[in-house]
Amino acid sequence: MHYTELKEHLQSLEMRLFEPDVRKSTEEVGEMLADDFVEVTRSGTVLNKQQIITVLAQEAPQRITLSDFRITKLAEDVILANYRAIQLDPEEALPVHT
Q1: What band does 17 get if pLDDT is binned at 50, 70 and 90?
Q2: How confident is the model at residue 77 (pLDDT cuts 50, 70, 90)?
Q3: 37: alpha, beta or left, given left = phi > 0 and alpha = psi -120 to 50?
Q4: What are the angstrom distances between the C-alpha of 4 and each of 7, 21, 73, 89?
Q5: Phi and psi angles of residue 53, each rounded to the nearest 5 degrees, phi first
Q6: Using an 8 Å Cβ cutoff, are 33 and 52 in contact?
Q7: Of 53, 70, 71, which is closest to residue 17 (Cα–Cα)?
Q8: Is 75 helix (H, G, I), strand (E, B) or coil?
Q9: pLDDT of residue 41
Q10: What's the pLDDT tens digit per position in 26-47?
Q11: What pTM value is reported for the model?
Q12: Contact (CB, 8 A) for 38 and 44
């Protein structure tokens, strides 16, 4: 897969994870994430696949968009995706950027 195709594919998967129904589905999130998946949160906490599945299943539904999506190939089978997530909470005056 070429860079542009890979970037578009990974961005579409990230956007799918922003959908409330997907986030609540432990099965669907489990299928989307690699077993050795790790995420660094906006606070710097490192979460593994199971922790992410648990957190997403428990969170309140919210509207999230993304911008500034980019990928970096770290190894033949390792891609780092970076982007700005924007949480749009109807009860908050300003969106939360991560």
Answers
A1: very high
A2: confident
A3: beta
A4: 5, 28, 12, 31
A5: -55, -45
A6: yes
A7: 53
A8: strand
A9: 86
A10: 999 999 999 999 999 888 999 9
A11: 0.78
A12: no
Six-digit token string for 49: 């696949």
| Contact in structure between 38 and 71 (CB atoms under 8 Å) | no
Helix then strand then coil, % of the chain, to nearest 5: 40, 35, 30
Q: Which residue, 76, 72, 98, is CA-closest to 87?
A: 98
Residue from 31, 28, 26 nearest 51 by CA: 26
In three-state secondary structure terms, 78 is strand
Which segments of the chain are extended strands (E)?
38-40, 46-48, 63-75, 78-88, 96-97
Pairing of strands 63-75, 78-88: antiparallel
pLDDT value at 80 more than 60: yes
